[in-house]
Amino acid sequence: MEVIHPGLYSSIQDLGRYSFRNIGVPVSGVMDEFHGKLANRLLGNDENKAVLELTLQGGSFRFHKPTQIAITGAGLSPLLNNHLVRLNSVISVTENDVLQFGKPTYGVRAYIAVKGGFQTEEVLQSRSFYEGITQKGVIEKGDTLSYLEETKHIHTLTHVAIRSDIFKEIAIEVYEGPEFELLTKKQQQKLFNTEFTIGLNNRMAYQLEETIENAIPSIITSAVLPGTIQLTPSGKLIILMKDCQTTGGYPRILQLSDKSISVLSQKHAKNAVRFTKLSVL
Amino acid sequence: MIHINCDVGEGVGNEEILMPYINACNIACGGHAGNAEIMDYVVRLAKKHAVEIGAHPSYPDRENFGRLSMDISPEKLIQTIQEQISNLEKIAAFHKVKITHIKPHGALYNDIAKNKNKAQLFLQAISKYKQKYTLYVPYNSTIEKEAIQQQFKVIYEAFADRNYEDNSTLVSRQKSNAVLTKEEEVLSHVFTLKNEQKVQTISGKKIPLKCDTFCVHSDTLKAVEIVQKLHTCFNEKKSIQPTSFPSYKAYGDQGILLTWEAKMTDEILFCVLEFYKIIKYFNVKVILDVIQSNNSILVIYNKNKITYKALQHLLERLFSIKYKKIKIPKSTCWEIPVCYDLHFGIDLEEIAQKKGISITEIISIHTTSIYRVFSIGFLPGFLYLGGLDKRLHIERKSTPRLEVKKGAVGIGGMQTGIYPKTSPGGWQILGNSPINFFDVTAQKPCFASAGDLIQFKAISIEDYNEIAARIFKGNYQLNYTKI
After folding, report:
1. Helices and strands (DSSP H and E) totals, chain B
2. Which domain holds residue B376?
């Protein structure tokens, strides 16, 4: 597949690069696992196959050989040869077909899966892009994203209904983080009674605009995870996402559930979120 | 102390969690379940945990899991039992471990407990093993009497997770109260058996029952929790003082964080690394990833396969076993060439001024100390080094640089380190090393490991260029010593 226009921030991702965190390698992987896996499932792929993750503006792509694809996640108005195509369905494409994306209507991240997955370079057991590990951090104009030719087709009536509630959900499920108990009652109340506004965000982290007065000291550098909420000395809340560093020194006060990492990854600046607590034990 | 045995290799897949808690295992050898691959896996596990290995032959009936009585000719029965035991013997021999016992499975176990013909037939089948292996039998059964009469060595077995009838037979699995799944029920059942050599039957009577070994079925719901509870109540060495470290905490719904005292010292690091190596050694598959840091370890587990509580119990158990076989490798001391020329050491003059010491002195102090690698994080291949001389402790730059060059050697606060790639950074820069700290194409992408030592060696700019050229060509070898 040839990249005619790469879009705003598009990268190849699978479910991530595990077991290298001990040498400082981030996990990476699809931000929205729910929709990343769904795209693969629709095609009968293994969930870990590499998909293309698009962010807000999708770009345009030309196919070089026949296959089937599925597009899931954010509504980015996909057009195949200038005809609108459905999300969450199996679409047959052939040589020289052009897939392009239009106006974003809801959500942030969309996924394109191809039968058998994209065959880009595999580094440290994963194809997930991460600059410094893979050659590129994002795809560029003129790149070729190879895939296997596929003529055995699944019925194109295969379709699952879009769950639009995922995109509207403002509740983010969290577990207590390792340093949660260091918070005062007042801080805890504020954490669960505030509707927070999303600020700066990318694949590494989502910042929240509202702050929480904080006097908890830093900790000795220790492991952090995608979905960890750190509280900085200035009272800022930082929600770590898939490309986050492997260790950190800020108190880890909350931890998102897997589902909520997916929900959050479809939100952008100015969107609201509210935390609801889950218990592990 | 009680002796615990488990029927394993039956496809449940929880053997790696059970093994640290049990004394003997009975491995399905193809009759009702199991195959060569599973037997091989379970035998290796049993060997690792020094658990006694038994053959667990059955009627050849995989469809009904060997739990139905079978009409089978005497010749065929003898043949299949001998084949099954021999299957396991071959695998055990390959791994140089001995089989200790035989325990028949399911309907076969029950049939020979009652039926004299079948009991004799079974003993005929295993007669060639009479001198080699013991036989697990239920107390007050036909097979017990026959076996003793024929001078087999017998071990009395009772079931920790099964209810008994008044005639000391097991309550049939056809009935709803056949299996005990609540931990408390199992405990009181075992207490009575152990302390009174009696069992409380379903009618409430207490009848005599001799028992040398207690069986827990690996496919019983909560088998892991039951075995852990039995171990805690009966087999844990009370003499071991519970230590306050590490402390255990849930980290999300699939992480368990082990934290030691909040110090960055060699003593704490060695505790962390010892535990880390034990977890790695046992290689338990429900543990998906282990992330070691300065005074902590984060264990990521498969939440569909084990609960937080059961995993904490398992980790504590693995640590208490402390097998002697785990070799703690020697530390490696790496000699890292650094060029402290002002061309690279862009903050040397500022540090000299702030600290009131000469640049020569800074370099001398920085290259004299030996640093310990505490962990690797922040960036791929970034080493957290401990041991910076107090005279070089200095605040980070008030405004971080947007770009610090790859290989830059810096100090910040009480730490020193090397930037493995060009990135933003706030440390004071002393020099630059031509060495690659992270190479995705290498078999070991980062040559250093936590626990290793680092010493910096001052080199000239000419040496720097020469080493850089050799690294580029791929013919540079880093100097190191084993300590």
Report:
1. 13, 23
2. 332-482
